[in-house]
Amino acid sequence: MVSRVIPVETFDLVIFGGTGDLARRKILPGLFRRFLAGQMPESSRIIGAARSELDADGYRKMIADAVAEFGGEESSNTKALQTFLERLDYVAIDAKGDGGWADLAKLVRPDVIQAFYFSVAPSLFGDLAERLHTNGIATEHSRIVVEKPFGRDLASAHALNATLAEHFDEKQIYRIDHYLGKETVQNLMAIRFGNVLFEPLWNNHYVDHIQITVSETVGVTGRGAYYDRSGAMRDMVQNHLMQLLCLIAMEPPGEFEADAVRDEKLKVIRALQPIDNHHIVRGQYDAGPDSQSYREDVENPRSFTESFIAMRCHIANWRWAGVPFYLRTGKKMKARSSEIAVVFKDLGHTIFEGDEARHRNILSIRLQPNEGIDLQVTIKEPGPGGMRLIDVPLDMTFADALGDDAEEVPDAYERLIMDVIRGNQTLFMRGDEVEAAWRWTDPLIEGWEARNDVPKLYEPGSAGPEDAMMLLHRDGRKWRDIKG
Ligand code: NAD
């Protein structure tokens, strides 16, 4: 099989914060891979713009080092890397002042696709948007890419939307959530809307419940100050998990087009019911035999911030009435794993005598590691001795099923950047979606902050606090094992 590389038009991509951690670790190594895949027309340019006083050669050197460190195998292609680096330029710029803007104006061409990636602190988004206009750089066709976090509550997200809207139309704004750029996430839509098998079962007649788990093994070391002000709800649930929930639960859009898809996702968020306290479990990791506790990691001995959260949600519409959606995410868990599991209902009646086990079909969609899909089906246990049933997976790990093509699958950031260049907003969050998500999470957060709710401690390397297990046990269900 040969992957199809869809050509893109010539572009100027300006990366504000081009010397930062995200640019060096993800954005530029990703762009180099797209360059290798032939998706960077010869006259396209990438312009780093940041505070450091560098010249273009200094920046190329920095990016050569970054690609060597974070770029994987491809970085050994030194000849190609050299050609890629020649397309890089750099401007030292002050987002809050006048320095560098005239130089940037000279570099950005008005007659090619212009994209401006705001890979800087959100407090600078407004300054950048304004200066792109006052310096006559942005046009009505320019696109801006905005990193997360997009606000920390409804009020701040609304204010940020309003600021960006002063200078850019919604069609020009690409709010990035790298989860949406993952191959499997897009496959969710292909599976649901490209097969006749699943859609008829995708409702409360056949689905018992759905579990969404995003677990990490790392703690918060390194970004403790930011994390302690956010917690798992703001950092993971409000964006990534809710986006996954939307894709799983949404109605089929009329067409595969950005606003059609986003309209349907928005309806899901709006249909989410408020959750009461009994259906939320917040946790904080404890110290382990050779690791620090959360509070030690964030250097805040009185922190009430959650590094784990589990919750039971309901969507108030005809399709999902009565079907719980269990969400959980946490740090310092037993394995790094992201999975969506659609657990189907029991058979109404079993014809197999003596078969007491409950056999359920489970469709599991793995986002990481080993992106893939498996469907648990029930078969006869091989061998003599009557009709005994066992459950086996119909497993499709993309790397196995697609061979070399799977290796060529672009990583989330590079795919999303190419979507920006192509002008495709399907995998980016619209302003009203982000606000609707905050509208749902705000009262929950305000509730536990007002109560000074203390998160339950959990052992590092575990599946979270005991109470999270109870959340499902009480409903006669259990969490799927977290496997790395
Ligand atoms: P960073 O601190 O490593 O880099 C910040 C960049 O902004 C630097 O290039 C710096 O020169 C530039 N900058 C700072 N002040 C400036 C100013 N006044 N004028 C011009 N440039 C200025 O930050 P980062 O980790 O790369 O994160 C960038 C953005 O991406 C943030 O919004 C962050 O929340 C988001 N993000 C980062 C990650 C990650 O893995 N690092 C992941 C998700 C989202």
Automatic annotation (TrEMBL):
Example GO biological process: pentose-phosphate shunt, oxidative branch
Sequence positions that bind NADP(+): 17-24, 51, 148
Protein name: Glucose-6-phosphate 1-dehydrogenase
Record: active site: 240
HAMAP family documented for this protein: G6PD (MF_00966)
Matching PANTHER family: GLUCOSE-6-PHOSPHATE 1-DEHYDROGENASE (PTHR23429:SF0), GLUCOSE-6-PHOSPHATE 1-DEHYDROGENASE G6PD (PTHR23429)
Residues at which substrate binds: 178, 182, 216, 235, 331
Reactions performed catalytically: D-glucose 6-phosphate + NADP(+) = 6-phospho-D-glucono-1,5-lactone + NADPH + H(+)
Function in brief: Catalyzes the oxidation of glucose 6-phosphate to 6-phosphogluconolactone.
Record-linked Pfam families: G6PD_C (PF02781), G6PD_N (PF00479)
Top EC category: oxidoreductase
